[in-house]
Amino acid sequence: MDNIEILQRIEKLEKQVELLQVEINAIKSIDVSEKTREQIDKIERANKLVSLMENLSGEKMPEAQKNEELEVLKNISQQAEIEVQSSMNIIDEFIDNSADESDFEWQSYQDGIEITKYIGFNKETVIVPELINNLPVRKIGDEVFLNCKEMHHIILPETIVELGKSVFEGSGLKEISLPSQIHKIPEYAFCLSDVSVVKCPPDIEEIDNFAFRFCRNLTTINLPNKLKRLGNSCFDDTNIHNIIIPANDVNIGGGIFSERGHIINIAFLGMNDTFLDGFKKCFDNMWDKRFVFYCLPGSSAQQYARKNDIPIKPLHEFKNDIQEEN
């Protein structure tokens, strides 16, 4: 393989990598699946290989050394081509296993479209289109993905402003990034699903009743600062051990946690959170010091804990205590 041929292969690889990079950037911003992470790693390796090939091919050197370097370049180019082809195969598989517009039924909603039913089959990754009939998709309706066990990942467009009740209930969904315009996680939204990672946008104000009930793979969730309400049993029977309630005078429903027996540390950042009467149900059987409030002096959380004989600690000890547990 001579220098001209190598340079031609470099140019071809550069174009392939450039096209792949465009595709992966679009996916990377909204999907964090294992396949996508693998794809990103391969693209980055291919980029590095192409860069190395350019550097080597551009150097001036003695003829003997040049021949050695040409052999190195040949090996590098072959490896880069394998990486690029592997990346292309992953993208093709990703697209083949993704839903499209024909997998949905819909109706008019506000200034756009509400998806009312998912009619696809055996799709591990579902990509909800941004537009249907040239109108923005605004809502995913009630029970659209109910019991879709085969669906592990979903990509939602930023046009969506509302989710329906039980939208992912009983599904095989493992992770999700919610669109930034969503303000409420509705009743039973993820109940009984396999979800373990939920990325909430900053404007979420309400997590409704039973939203994550029986999500036993869920071990942590970051609650946005604008949160105003946690509904009844919203985290019942999950595996959340530590949670931070933002300083926004949150209305806290009854039985939001379960009696599964593990330590549940709750940090209250605010002074005036409200506890509904049913809240006590979540620790009625936890009198052996497995339920701990971390709060500010004089806060409603401190008063509530003392009234109900719940262990209390100063808020500043929360970070150190959970680090020791881990």
How would you describe this structure to a colleague?
The chain is an alpha/beta fold and 326 residues long. It has 3 domains: 3-96, Substrate Binding Domain Of Dnak, Chain:A, Domain 2 (Up-down Bundle); 101-239, Leucine-rich repeat, LRR (right-handed beta-alpha superhelix) (Alpha-Beta Horseshoe), CATH 3.80.10; 241-326, no CATH class. Helix content is 31%, strand content 19%. The strands form 5 sheets. Strands 1, 2, 4, 5 and 7 form a 5-stranded mixed sheet that branches. Strands 9-11-12-14-16 form a 5-stranded parallel sheet, covered by helices on one side. Helix 1 packs antiparallel against helix 2, helix 1 (3-28) packs parallel to helix 3 (63-96) and helix 2 (34-57) packs antiparallel against helix 3. The longest helix has 34 residues, at 63-96. The radius of gyration is 26 Å and the shape is globular. The mean pLDDT is 81.
Task: Describe the SSE topology.
Elements: H1 3-28, H2 34-57, H3 63-96, E1 104-109, E2 112-118, E3 125-127, E4 131-132, E5 135-140, E6 153-155, E7 162-163, E8 175-177, E9 184-185, E10 197-199, E11 206-207, E12 229-230, E13 242-245, E14 251-252, E15 264-268, E16 274-275, E17 291-295, H4 300-307, E18 312-314, H5 318-325
Parallel strand pairs: 2-5, 3-6, 5-7, 8-10, 9-11, 11-12, 12-14, 13-15, 14-16, 15-17, 17-18
Antiparallel strand pairs: 1-2, 4-5
Helix pairs in contact: 1-2, 1-3, 2-3
Keywords:
18 strands, Leucine-rich repeat, LRR (right-handed beta-alpha superhelix), 326 residues
